[in-house]
Amino acid sequence: MPRTIDYLFTLMSPWAYFGFDRLHAIAARHGAAIRYRPVLLLNVFSETGGLPLAKRHPARQAYRLVELQRWRAIRGLPLVLKPAGVPFDATLADCITLAAVARGFSPEAYLRAAHRAIWVEQQNLADDNTLIRLLAETGLPADLLDLARSTAIRAEYEANRDWALATNVFGAPSYVLDGEIFWGQDRLDLLDAALASGRPPYSPEGDA
Length: 208
Prior knowledge:
9 helices, Glutaredoxin, single chain, alpha+beta, 4-stranded mixed beta sheet, 10% strand
């Protein structure tokens, strides 16, 4: 039976963009399924002691910009450090993921294009026309936009937040394998190793 990686993310995260292709390569190599869980990141931050970027100390904000440049080089991906239109309300763009899955489509191509649209092309993903164009470009029907606004999909989006908090996830992207959290795209090598070894999950209780 294939193992499942619960993937907690928001399109507002450049770190999710950096880790996206590597996550999918790891999952494919190990025959693992990915359960996409877009999440209300600011709510998760606030309830677990984190701060939104604008409220962080200037030293932390400056260091983040250096880290983005490092990982941009390591991953070999283009990235605009301060793209126009960021931050924005990513709720609708995130919820298209859930709408696609609900209709039996893979959201992978859409998410890849959406990441690039934000972090490379500086497009506005809070705009309906931009989202409709991305859906068309990635072979998905335009009516997913309406489904993404539905009560059922918004409830699922909220439920992902509740699941994250109940699972002790505190940031995105996070990758959860058998209850073990791998926080940040810089932990993908550890996720890869866990899948390769087949070991049981580590827990805060350790060996007790």
